[in-house]
Amino acid sequence: MKLLHIDSSILGAHSASRELTAEIVAQWVQKHPDTTVEHLDLAVHAPGHFGADAIAIKGVAQPEPTAAQRAENALSEQLVTQFLAADMVVIGAPLYNFSIPTQLKAWIDRLAQPGRTFRYTEKGPEGLATGKTVIVASTRGGVYSTSEGGQAMEHQESYLKVVLGFFGITDVRIVRAESLAMGDEAKAAAMSDARAEIAQAVA
After folding, report:
1. Strand pairing of 118-121 and 124-127?
2. Which of 22, 137, 8, 4 is nearest to 83 (CA)?
3. Quick check: is 194 in a domain?
């Protein structure tokens, strides 16, 4: 079994999402000792934002690709191949400004390739990255899960569920720690609750 461990927090050792992804991976490997782990730190190795050179080779027929286009295509192919090879994906996804980090969004943009992770049919889009399990370590400074207003404001878990579902992944498990910026007591309680969720997520 191959596990792809993705971190995207820019906070390094102070990151709650990194703490949770490390615990998720450790518990998963303990239960599944045949697992091989590959770690991708998007805060350190962030792909460039998806631009014209990145999409050029994927588009309509054109003259010989430029060096910049070939380099962008090679990066996208590297990332999507790595993703498709994984059976399990663990994603650290902190909430930044009501959404996910731009580094994580740039990675997802590289994965969204027709013919690789999805395709369009006469019945609509079909996900091609089926059979995977994804565990998302979701961290938030405030509380968004307990009210309709809060749920409407977050475009983090909701976005990840939609885009992963578009890729054909139906087994998406959320390990959530919120209220992390609401005092030491609230943070400790949130992390304790998240650790309890880890045990269920890796079961």
Report:
1. antiparallel
2. 4
3. yes
66 or 21, greater pLDDT: 21
Q: Please write the tens of the pLDDT for every residue from 138-147.
A: 999 999 999 9
Range of the domain at 50: 21-201
Q: Judge whether 42 and 104 are in contact, CB under 8 Å.
A: yes
Reported as a pLDDT band with limits 50, 70 and 90, residue 58 is low
Look up the pTM and report it.
Answer: 0.94
Residue 203: what pLDDT? 86
Asked whether residue 12 is domain-assigned, the answer is no
Question: Closest by alpha carbon to 93, among 142, 45, 155, 153?
Answer: 155
Q: From residue 76, how far is each of 23, 106, 110, 199 by CA, in Å? A: 29, 10, 5, 34
105 contact partners, CB below 8 Å, separation of at least 6 = 99
Q: Bridge-partner residues for 133, per DSSP?
A: 88, 171
Reported as half-sphere exposure (CB side, CA atoms, 13 A), residue 194 has a value of 29
